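Category: protein sequence paired with discrete backbone structure
Discipline: computational structural biology
Format: plain text, a pair of labelled lines
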Amino acid sequence: MPHRVLVGLLALASLLLTLSPRVTADALGPSYVQAAASTPAKSANVWDGRGTEFEEYLRTAEIDHFADVPIGVTHPKRAFFKPGGLVESVAWKVLPPGRPAGYWESYKSEIAAYELDKLLHMGMVPVAVEKRWKGETAAAVLWLTPIHSWKEMEPRPKPGKWVRQVARMKMFDNFIGNKDRNAGNLLVDDDWNLFLIDHSRAFVTDKDLAVKLEHIDREFWDRILALDEPTLLAALGKWVEGRGGVRAMLARRDKIKIAIDKLVAANGEAAVFLK
């Protein structure tokens, strides 16, 4: 068949597929179906590479209205911005630093968790900033979408990357002294990316580890080891209990190292460090 005729037929076929509402996936053939099925799932990490832009919007955008959130022991609200902006809504957490019910609570800990996430290149803690609105000072935490609860996703088969994400979560929680991790503050998007929310009870001066470690992500552990007191003070000093809060983090890091050394001694590096 002459090349010009073949090109013409292909162009005509393309036009017919565009115009006809009756064309089905079966008619398009297996290659089309395979391509459609392999469309990547949408990630809820919309701030990747745009953190500064999102932070500025959350700080400065006008809040349009609030809605109650039916879950959460700290009784957060959901604050909606005017339609058409960069962000639809945030979790609004007004928690002055203190121990109102015996537990340490602080909106500043939400911001500290996000700032530490940036230092560690995690991408697991949503953007959180300090925001003042009509006499209130709160943490404004990006509301993630599309997202699923852990209760919904737990029964499903997990991809290989899940084990590494859980290992990082446990190391992170030990480093920040977060003993309040539970199914209600684990969120998962359509691409099985794990997100961590609700850190208002973290960054305490308690030096005990929050969770037992099983597996270690060596690259992530190296990032934690690379942090020093001046770096942490510069990034987190405003949001934690000053030098005491940072030194408690470093003390917990020392305990993490001891726990890792014990795991390696008992099971060998190959069983402990993820490939």
About this structure: The CA atoms of residues 61 and 79 lie 11 Å apart. Residues 1-38 have pLDDT under 50 and may be disordered.
